[in-house]
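In this section we walk through a basic example: taking a raw amino acid sequence and producing a predicted 3D structure, encoded as discrete structure tokens. The instruction is simple. Fold the sequence below.
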Amino acid sequence: MTKPLDGIRVLEVASWMFVPSGGSVLADWGAEVIKVEPPTGDPQRGLVSSGLLPGGAGGVNFMVEQPNRSKRSVALDLSRPEGVEALMRLVETADVFLTSYLPHVRRKLGIDVEHVQARRPDIVYARGSGQGPKGPDAGKGGYDGASYWARGGVGSVMPEKEGGWPPGQVSPAFGDVMGGMATAGGVAAALVRRERTGEGAVVDCSLLATAMWQVSPLVVASKLFGFSKIPQGDRAFSPNPLVNVYRTADDRFISLILLQSDRFFPELCARLGRPALADDPRFADADARAENKVACVAALDEVFGGQPLTHWVDALADFSGVWSVFQTLDELYDDPQVVANGYLPAMQAADGRSVQLVASPVQFDEQAVVVTRAPEHGEHTEAVLLDVGLTWDEVAALKDAGAIP
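The resulting token sequence is shown next.
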């Protein structure tokens, strides 16, 4: 199968998770992604050996594998003019230049928009930033814990901790991967325009903008109505008891999302083994259930609480309404939908182990994403440089100059 970005070459001059995760999406879509790293490597490589991630120095560095799978790595010292010139030789063959470097660093190194476009005028130059390309903080760095979670308002819409403390992020790189997906989409759109017009583009995506998009309904509502989070009231007072969460006998949880409650209530009652509930005048229709919501929620609590999760999974297996179990992360590996759609593709790690990564969410032509391991630091330096036309003598000269390890 031909992937949408087959034949597209992406140079990724970026580190950590945000922009590299966008590179991984482009790789999933068929692009050749060349990760250009400094002689010391992407600093995210050091998290596992420094003890900040489980596994130790010999373990699978999942925070490198997930955003850098299916790429090639070239190690270049961009502080040396020879290293920058080698990068520019790569630029001449590339379709996309993807970077997370700060503006003053790009200018100092000579790899900013004007420098790269001088060597490849129709290139798509994509920049990932904390706060966006304009304004007083455009030149400042940003991580998702600050620019996305804190500044972008995502943390403020989550339930507070005891004592009024804001909640911590629910997952590592929580905003980074969303920003990376958005960046990849912007790059793809710019490539379509280039195909039609021959024009290159400058694409910008920030963690701040990604966060605001993530909580956009509440951002708008806060200005219109003066509230900034969805009220977390007593679940017993839900005006539609069929849009609620219920606890099973073994302390698992089921989410019901039956927005058209009159359509689904009789069938639900039958599957719960309580068909008489549908005939109870207190619960006869949506208005009656809203008026008697506390009693309705209590009745459903009693029913769901009387059996373990496995019972309800069987009872609701072919129920026509929308419901779901609150799954644990490890249960995703056995979810039949995850398995059938290939959402956790396997790759062979450097130590020979088979390790499953998470596929980016878009598929083409019903084909599951295929991934390979992330490259070792500088693993493809010589091969890539030779591929773009450098000779062995030129590669040797770069080694002598200290531009490549």
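Looking at the output, two observations stand out. The mean pLDDT is 91. The chain has two domains: 9-216+344-401, 235-331. In the next section we compare this with other chains.
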